[in-house]
Amino acid sequence: MALRSAWIGVCLLGLIGAGLAEGVQAHSKAPKVTPADGSVLAEAPPALGFSFSEAIRLTAVRLYDESGREVELPGRRDMTAAQDREIALPPLDAGLYRVEWRALAADGHPMKGAFSFTIAPATIAPAN
Q: Could you read off the pLDDT of 27-47 as tens digits, one per residue?
């Protein structure tokens, strides 16, 4: 009985160790994005920027306005692996925008994230 309990304990330790090792494996970190999450901009940016810690495949990028409608992004997507990626934007009106993205890391690990930014042009006070 004691031998069986010891064997079960060793197996459990092995499973826990394997789980910890898997969690420690290097995966690409969340990207640095431009515009920064939560930023308020005086004018619309020309593009969205993604900078990852390793080359990844950016598989999907979607942009939504504050009413939840998807804004069509121009151009074709380049699915080759790259560390830095820019996605051109169409002209955008003032308001809140949400970006949702998905990617595939070099090790096959799927990634996803979201960020938002606001376009709020400064109002010019009338001259006296």
A: 557 899 999 999 999 999 999
Global confidence as pTM: 0.73
Phi/psi of residue 16, each to 5°?
Answer: -65, -45
DSSP assignment of 35-78 equals: SPTTEEESS--SEEEEEEEEEEEEEEEEEE-TTSPEEPPPS---
Residue 126, pLDDT score: 56
pLDDT band at 63 (very low <50, low <70, confident <90, very high): very high
Three-state secondary-structure class, residue 16: helix
- Identify the bridge partners of residue 112 per DSSP, sorted by sequence position: 102
Other CB atoms within a 10 A radius of the CB of residue 16 amount to 10
Measured between alpha carbons, how far is 65 from 94 in angstroms, rounded to an integer? 10
In the chain, where the domains are located = 28-119
Q: Kindly report the CATH class assigned to 28-119.
A: mainly beta
